[in-house]
């Protein structure tokens, strides 16, 4: 081969090396596409709206995210109501006889157009919130609707967890607690009834463990594995009972929840007092007083409670609970 040919061959080799380096450099500098947002439901944000904007969390936007067939112009929801995954918005309460203690169920009220009062939001982080959209109310003060863990991402609103919640919506507070290695949704709310001078209120806490990406309605099982009650813990209850002496016995019950890594401790107290309706000014006599503590444990197999409530143990048959 001539000297010129050798020089030409070396030139071609250097050209090939330069092309490889250039291609490698182009691959390194190529823009990386944003990964697809994985969510149960997703709603894109307008290009001009920032994630930190309060407008991201407008009730109308959240209703549209969580409820199929929601019309923002009227606030109406198509029937039968379904959530953003097409699941009917229904909550299955334990039937009479399924559990040792069953609360009185309310009757569903007609669907009404949704307003800002039907959207309950609890902030966990600036970009992460617990959201409950109240779709239907009941005669006993309860309400039902989709509950979700919603994250604001650069692309839009993403539903990370979803379920159907039934609880008292008045003054409701939502929070997530890690118990026994499981995230549990606790919803504290109240119902009130009666005239302002004789107004009565009752609070309760609904428990819903997060199983995968679903908030699940479960019951509390006793030591024998059978259902003891719904996972709805009353914080206050009252009942009255007429006595053969024509006196009236009144039961007053209160409880307080303490959340710990090993479970939920429920400190209970109940007092039964007798009074003479003919002498309303006379102080009532204490008939019985008791207190106890229950432990609710959360595991992969469900919710368990170690003993029945003092309410179910001490309130005698013939007593009538005061309800709306």
Automatic annotation (TrEMBL):
Q: Is Lipoprotein given among the entry's keywords?
A: yes
Q: Is Lipoprotein among the key words of this record?
A: yes
Q: Where is this region: Disordered?
A: 270-290
Q: Name the keywords, alphabetized.
A: Lipoprotein
What is the designated name of this protein? Putative lipoprotein
Taxonomic lineage of the native organism = Bacteria, Pseudomonadati, Myxococcota, Myxococcia, Myxococcales
């Amino acid at each position: 081969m001539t000297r010129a040919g050798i020089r030409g061959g070396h030139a071609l080799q250097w050209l090939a090396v330069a092309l490889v380096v250039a291609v490698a450099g182009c691959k390194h500098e190529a823009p990386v596409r944003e990964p697809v947002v994985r969510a149960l439901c997703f709603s894109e944000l307008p290009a001009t709206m920032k994630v930190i904007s309060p407008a991201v969390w407008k009730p109308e936007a959240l209703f549209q995210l969580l409820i199929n067939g929601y019309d923002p112009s009227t606030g109406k929801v198509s029937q039968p109501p379904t959530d953003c995954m097409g699941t009917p918005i229904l909550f299955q309460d334990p039937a009479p006889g399924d559990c040792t203690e069953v609360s009185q169920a309310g009757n569903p009220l007609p669907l009404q157009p949704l307003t800002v009062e039907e959207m309950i939001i609890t902030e966990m982080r600036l970009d992460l919130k617990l959201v409950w959209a109240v779709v239907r109310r009941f005669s006993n003060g309860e309400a039902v609707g989709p509950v979700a863990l919603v994250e604001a991402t650069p692309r839009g609103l993403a539903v990370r967890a979803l379920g159907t919640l039934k609880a008292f919506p008045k003054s409701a507070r939502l929070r997530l607690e890690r118990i026994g290695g499981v995230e549990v949704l606790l919803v504290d709310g109240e119902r009130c009834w009666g005239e302002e001078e004789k107004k009565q209120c009752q609070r309760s806490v609904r428990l819903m463990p997060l199983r995968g990406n679903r908030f699940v309605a479960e019951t509390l099982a006793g030591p024998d594995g059978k259902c003891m009650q719904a996972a709805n813990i009353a914080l206050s209850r009252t009942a009255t009972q007429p006595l053969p002496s024509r006196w009236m016995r009144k039961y007053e019950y209160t409880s307080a929840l303490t959340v710990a890594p090993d479970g939920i401790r429920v400190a209970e107290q109940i007092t039964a007092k007798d009074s003479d309706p003919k002498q309303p000014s006379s102080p009532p006599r204490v008939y019985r007083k008791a207190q106890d503590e229950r432990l609710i444990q959360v595991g992969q197999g469900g919710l368990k409670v170690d003993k029945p409530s003092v309410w179910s143990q001490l309130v005698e048959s013939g007593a009538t609970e005061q309800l709306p």
